[in-house]
Specification:
heterodimer, A: 286 residues, mainly alpha, 75% helix, B: 149 residues, alpha/beta, 4 helices, 5 strands, globular, binds iron/sulfur cluster
């Protein structure tokens, strides 16, 4: 393992949330511009979280904070493994465990809103997990390794070979980022049927932990997206992944929310049509 | 400098009456006024809110809701009463079930007059409440330190 891999992984732990916060800030500003508003400052997500630490934290049960730390911990682990250039599959598992911890925290608080929110989140996990699993699988079939460092050093044609999987991944990315039409577990706007879904009963520093976790998650998902284009080098790959990442904002602003059953059907259909077909065709293309 | 001033999240409740002030309040979120440029977010959730905006004359039915929402908001928090109804009961003052003013039920920090209150004055009311919010935050910090000692 090269020393520079270690420094990248530690940089993720330190700088990751800052980058994630900036992504969230740009996201909010873009959303505002699309609605012909001026929008908040780019640093607004950071102000929000610093504010949350100034507020009191209402504790429904001691467990909620424990689960939230679990959520944050496994999120950091998932990113650490990814940026270390290590096993992509392991990183995915850590990401999933962290999602489960967030659901547990929401269940523990026992409010009807967060209960519905977390059962919907579990449903969403069933919707996106098959496609997410297919991403490392596709990389493995193309490069012969689950290691991120090998994928980056892979052939420049891998994105063409994995085009179907990329399309499927972009589809589930919308679910992962909790954007419309799939934001049914935690709506970001008030005055909707779920209030705030999973985070309804979390306040103060607990809510801040959730936000920081989401910042890490943003960076991790951006990293996954980057992997597809990685062999072309950062100067081409980074802009492409940023553009695709912010294309999600456009999707968010132009779609109404789906019901969980249509979400499940749509995402499994996409998984089948693009993911599985791509996997089956791989031996022919390569 | 407290970050509460940079990201005040508001909770909005209409304690009955004609809903005129209600609509004006929501007008603040539209592209013309866009309060999100000050970091103001309309949360529908008392546990995330810093500022409680109440419109309308409170009556026996809505009193419990107002009290409940106020109790669920974590400290530091402020209350802004918006519109003649929320200040004194307004034209509904003489109705048999109306309390006459939100301050009969929960402590109010800023009063925004008008029937209906203009979006500009509502934004002004929120901005004024920010100073009070900052004061409260300092006090709360001191209290927490004393508990920790
Ligand atoms: S103050 Fe006037 S506009 Fe506002 S709620 Fe009362 S009656 Fe309606």
């Amino acid at each position: 393992m090269k020393p520079y891999a270690w420094s990248l992984a530690f940089a993720f732990i330190l700088v990751g949330p800052l980058l994630g916060a900036l992504l969230a800030g740009v996201d909010r500003r873009l959303t505002a511009r699309m609605q012909s508003r001026k929008g908040p400052p780019i640093l607004q997500p950071i102000y929000d979280v610093l504010k949350l630490f100034e507020k009191d934290t209402l504790v429904v049960t001691q467990l909620q904070t424990l689960y939230l730390w679990g959520f944050l911990f496994f999120m950091v682990i998932a990113g650490f493994i990814l940026f270390l250039g290590s096993d992509l599959l392991l990183s995915l598992f850590a990401l999933t465990v962290s999602g489960i911890f967030l659901c547990l925290a929401a269940y523990a608080t026992n409010s009807p809103y967060s209960n519905i929110g977390s059962s919907r989140e579990l449903m969403l996990m069933m919707a996106y997990e098959p496609m997410l699993i297919m991403v490392p699988l596709g990389f493995f079939l193309v490069t012969g390794s689950f290691r991120v460092s090998d994928i980056i050093a892979g052939s420049p044609w891998q994105v063409l070979q994995l085009l179907g999987i990329l399309v499927g991944f972009l589809f589930v990315l919308t679910i992962k980022l909790r954007k419309s039409p799939f934001d049914l577990s935690s709506s970001h706007h008030g005055h909707q049927e779920l209030v705030q879904g999973m985070t309804t009963d979390l306040s103060g520093s607990d809510l801040a932990i959730v936000e920081i976790g989401h910042w890490y998650e943003n960076v991790i998902l951006l990293g996954w997206l980057y992997l597809f284009f990685a062999p072309w080098g950062p100067w081409i790959a980074l802009p492409i992944s940023f553009v695709l990442f912010f294309a999600e904002v456009l999707v968010d602003n132009t779609n109404a929310r789906l019901k969980w059953s249509s979400t499940l059907k749509a995402s499994w259909l996409m998984t089948g049509v693009f993911g599985v077909t791509n996997l089956l065709l791989l031996p022919v293309i390569s | 400098m407290s970050f509460l001033k940079k990201s005040p999240w508001v909770l909005h409740y209409a304690a009955t009456s004609c809903n005129g002030c209600d609509i004006e309040l929501l007008a603040c979120l539209t592209p013309l006024y866009d309060v999100e440029r000050f970091g103001i977010v309309n949360t529908g959730n008392p546990k995330h809110a810093d500022i409680f905006l109440v419109t309308g004359s409170v009556n026996e039915e809505s009193r419990k809701v107002v009290e409940n929402l106020y109790a669920q908001m974590p400290d530091p928090k402020v209350v802004v009463a918006i519109g003649a109804c929320a200040l004194s009961g307004g034209i509904f003052r003489d109705a048999y079930n109306v309390y006459g003013g939100i301050d009969q039920v929960i402590p109010v920090d800023v009063y925004v007059p008008g029937c209906a209150a203009r979006p500009e004055s509502i934004i002004d009311g929120i901005v004024r409440s920010l100073d009070i919010l900052e004061q409260r935050a300092k006090e709360r910090k001191r209290q927490r330190k004393m508990v920790a000692l």
